[in-house]
Structures are given as C-alpha cells and as structure tokens.
Amino acid sequence: MILTLTVNPAIDRNLTVDRLAFEDRAYILNTEEAAGGRGINASQVIQSFGGRTVAVAPVGGATGERLKHYLRKRAFTVDTVEVGAATRINLNITDAQGLTIKLNEKGEPLTSAEQTAIEKAVAKRLPEARWLMLCGSLPPGVPADFYARLIAAARKHQVKTLLDTDGEPLEAGIEARPTVVSPNQHEAERLLNKILLTRIQLMEAAERIRMMGPELVVVSIAGKGCLGAREGMIVEAIPPRVDAVSPIGAGDALAASFTWSMAANGDFAEALRWGVAAGTASALLPGLHFANLDQTRKIYEQVQLRDNPR
User: Fold this and answer.
1) Backbone angles phi, psi at 142, to 5 degrees
2) Are 35 and 71 in contact (CB under 8 A)?
3) By CB distance 3.0 to 4.6 Å, which of 2, 64, 235, 291 could disulfide with 281?
4) By three-state DSSP, how is residue 76 classified?
5) 154 band by pLDDT with thresholds 50, 70 and 90
6) Across the beta sheet with 28-36, what order do the strands follow?
7) Domain extents for the chain?
8) What does the pLDDT average to over 155-168?
9) Is the whole-model pTM more than 0.85?
C-alpha cells in the first residue's frame, strides 16, 4: 500500500478560458471543482493504475465539508482528520494554448493538537504501508521539520519515503534522509539558491541535492521530462514532443507514477520512465485530469532513457 499525506489540501477550482493576455479580458469556457492537494492527486493516479493507496488529509469548515463530498466520489480510502481551520481554495486558470496561472491560498494555521492528530493518523497506517508520500506545502505555523519527523517514523517501520514539497520543509526533510526527494526545477533552484538553465547545471543540481541526504533525487523539468540521480549515475527520462493542453497536476502524476512503479519492482530507471509518461499524458488532458494506465502506457513506449555516469 502507498500512503499519501496532504497536510494542506484544497478545493481546486479550475477555469478554462479562451486566452490569457496581459491587460485584456478572457472569457470563461468551463469551470470545474475537485478535491485538490498533491497527495490526494497522487492517490488518485495510483488507484487508477491499479495500486492500493490510502490518503490522509485534514479537513475543516464549510470548504472542508465540500472537500469530503468530493473525496467520497474517489475509489480509494481517505482518512480525514477534523480541524478547526477552513480548508483552502486554489484557483487554476488555463487557456486554449496551455498557458496556466495558479493562484493558491496559503491555508490556515493548525493547532499543536491538530498537528499531533495528523501524525497519529499517519502512524496508524504505517504498519501496512510500503511507501509514504509526503506531499505539498505546510500550512502557516506548522514547524518546517514536520515532514522530517514523519520520515523518521516511517523508517522505524521500514517504510520508504518520497518527499514532494518546497522551501523550508524541503530543506528540513532532506536532512532526515528520505528515500526520494522530487522537486521540480523551480523548487530545486530555491533549495540551492541558484538559477538552473542548462542540462549540465540541472544534472549537477540533482547530484548536489542527493549528496544532501536522500538516497534518490528526481528533478522534473516542465515539458522536458526529468533527471534522476542515484549513486554513480544520472538518468534522463525524455518525453516525446507533444502539444500540452493543461500542465496542471503533471508533476503530481509524475511523482505518483514513479512511486507506483518503484513499489512494484524497484527499478529506478523504469520508474522515471513511468513518471515522465504519466506527467506527459496528463498534460494532454484538459483542466485538472489525470491520465489512466492505458493512456500513460502509450506515452511510456515513447519515453527515452539516457544514462550519464558520474
């Protein structure tokens, strides 16, 4: 079973517009709402691939009730933790050319007791889990080492961990030596305080992050696949050229498919290939929709792998 945690879930409100242009109007063509958050999205992908997954997420307020309504429609198990703060709302806007704007609320603070309740909900599921995915931002006031504590707890149960976050929680989590960290290019730049422009710079960044603590590193590069760093090797997974419709959630699909594949056979290069395939296939779908296994397999067959010994 793959356990996912979304500490800062959201209602995702997804708008499709005719075009996005500076200082000009756009017309809304379609509006959708869905349960959002990196871990929830990851569980959706894993379940659609035939994997077993449980998602843990706090919910609160009227928006939390709406979130639970959307979650009840999902085919995977969700352990919700009731909190006092209202669940946030995120706004995603995509035009017909694939240009995307993401506007995320920061979320409301969680009390110490609520943070403990979330940790207990994760700990309850760890004995049956093979992987724990720690996904997304932390609400204001939650200590930056929150994920680090959960990585240590997972290690006691011999559960592998994937850390998919940004900023201080990423820095603190890396020090706890997770199995995998999966920043995108912008998150890697913030972590290293360095602009990454070239292929060589990205490869050096992936290796530098690996030397900071994690066993494996996956750096996703929008539209260009990803770089995976393991001891002695950088592996590039290169997608076919496609015309993306909506890149929203492609990174979540990549992390989920990568973890699903690692749980299945532990082959790092193949997991990178599946991850890039899922991210690419999902970017071909409108709004916030994720490719299923058949759609992903078609892209998987076109993803190229390139080894770069270090």
Assistant:
1) -75, 130
2) yes
3) 291
4) coil
5) very high
6) 28-36, 10-17, 88-95, 100-104
7) 2-21+30-309
8) 97
9) yes
If one counts every other C-beta atom within 10 angstroms of the C-beta of residue 106, the result is: 11
By residue count, the chain amounts to 310
Distances 60 to 34, 120, 194, 210 between C-alpha atoms, Å: 16, 18, 37, 37
Classify burial at 158, counting beta carbons within 10 Å of its beta carbon; exposed 0-12, middle 13-18, buried 19 or more.
exposed
What span, in angstroms and rounded, lies between the C-alpha atoms of 250 and 295? 14
Q: Check residue 258 and give its pLDDT.
A: 98
- Tokens 């890039």 belong to 276
Confidence of residue 309 (pLDDT cuts 50, 70, 90): confident
Token digits of residue 212: 């900071």
pLDDT at 244 over 90: no
The top-level CATH class assigned to 2-21+30-309 is: alpha beta
Q: 108-140 as b/e, with b when 16 or more CB fall inside 10 Å?
A: bebeeebbeebbebbeebbeebbbbbbbbbbbe
C-alpha–C-alpha distance, residues 286 and 7, integer Å:
26
- Largest Cα–Cα distance in the chain? 55
- Cβ atoms of 13 and 274 within 8 Å: the answer is no
Bridge-based pairing state of the strands 100-104 and 304-309: unpaired
Residue type at 242? V
Give the 3-state secondary structure of 190-218. HHHCCCCCCHHHHHHHHHHHHHCCCCEEE
Residue 273 in this model has a pLDDT that exceeds 90: yes
Instruction: Kindly state the tokens that stand for 30.
Output: 């379609």
From residue 221, how far is each of 17, 173, 195, 228 by CA, in Å? 25, 21, 13, 11
Mean pLDDT of the chain: 94
